[in-house]
Design a protein that fits this description.
This protein is mainly α. The protein is 43% helix and 0% strand. The protein is built from 1 helix and no strands. It is elongated and about 65 Å long.
Length: 54
């Protein structure tokens, strides 16, 4: 059964994981976000909602 032979697939998985961790991820994280979060105050309603069935 070829699924049980980890010889080529384990190496491919390790190479993929290392390339993502050390090459691709720092490049992706270096991009700045276009919509930076701002400090907005939450506006809440002064009166609670009145449900018709209560």
């Amino acid at each position: 059964m070829p699924q049980l032979n980890p010889n080529p697939w384990f190496t491919i998985m390790l190479l993929t994981w290392f390339s993502f961790s050390f090459l691709i991820q720092p490049k992706l994280l270096s991009f700045t976000q276009t919509n930076a979060p701002s400090n907005k105050t939450l506006t809440t309603s002064p009166t609670p909602w009145t449900w018709p069935w209560t």
